Amino acid sequence: MATLLDVARAAGVSKATASRALQRPELVAEATRLRVQEAADRLGFHPNAAARALTTGRTGLIGLIVPTLSNPFFAPLVMGAQQAAEETESHLLIAVSEYHAQREAALADRLSEQADGLIMVTPVGTDTALRERFRRRPLVLVDRQVGRLPAVVADTAAGLTELLDHLLAQGHRDIAYVSGPADSWADEQRRTALTAQASAAGARVRVLGPLPPTFDAGIEASRALPDDATAVLAYNSYLTLGLLHGLGAAGRRVPEDVSLAAADDLSTLSATTPPVTALDVPLQEAGALAVTRLHELLDGHRRTVTSRLPAAPVLRASTAPPRGRR
What we know:
By secondary structure, the protein is of the alpha/beta class. The chain is 44% helix and 17% strand. The strands form two sheets. A six-stranded parallel sheet has the order 2-1-3-4-5-11, with helices on both faces. A six-stranded mixed sheet has the order 7-6-8-9-10-12, sandwiched between helices. Helix 9 (185-200) links the parallel strand 6 and strand 7 (204-208). Helix 1 (4-11) crosses helix 2 and helix 1 crosses helix 3. It is elongated. The N and C termini lie far apart (73 Å).
């Protein structure tokens, strides 16, 4: 197995210079860095993580806390973060909070003992708790905005208002929004945007919930759906699939009797009967960008900015003009 000394000899530099070229490349000339890296690649040398931590003060570990892994919505986000971490020779430590604030805080404390920084996806902790955590450890939020803390947000609220405009243009005036978990920041943003948009257009959005983002909750919501609602927007795909099932069981056809759309787009929604209108949320891009923002913090760039990624409507057969307008 090649050692750092082997790399130094092959590159024609001292062991200290080889170490700096691999661990702190900004401290050496570019030509030297390239020569050392070429020698390391040729010899199959990989820096020891413990040695790197002693040299740079970093472990190369990133803590990633997600609310659940049972919902495939988060899988592309984790994949995007993983790919970005690999490109920077970092590694993810993934933990699952199950939408529980105390568990989320305990996991963040534990990961902070090992990781250089944290990425917290849709955290449910208070604004005060998240600000305090940022003061103690580099932190990037995903799908949650707290003041000027670094964050990456998929703009599903704006995307849903575009979907609402689509429904309004079709003639819908009484629309239901099946909302998500009570502590969801994103859900609050969506409710506010939808009700304001509908009011400005002389229409009405009625909110059902808060509800857990599950298939069974969607079935229950279908039973509570007002008879005069001609269209439904749902917090996520699982609620949407439950609504589709429950409406069908009750003899209410989509879109003949009620139009249906979702705030995210699992692959199953394009395969249902009918295929469901939904938002295309750039989850993989969000995960990768969160890792980039965290590395900027670790490198001393104190960016206090929210990066917003657009969520675009994908129109399918589940939305149509209400009866009487066809």
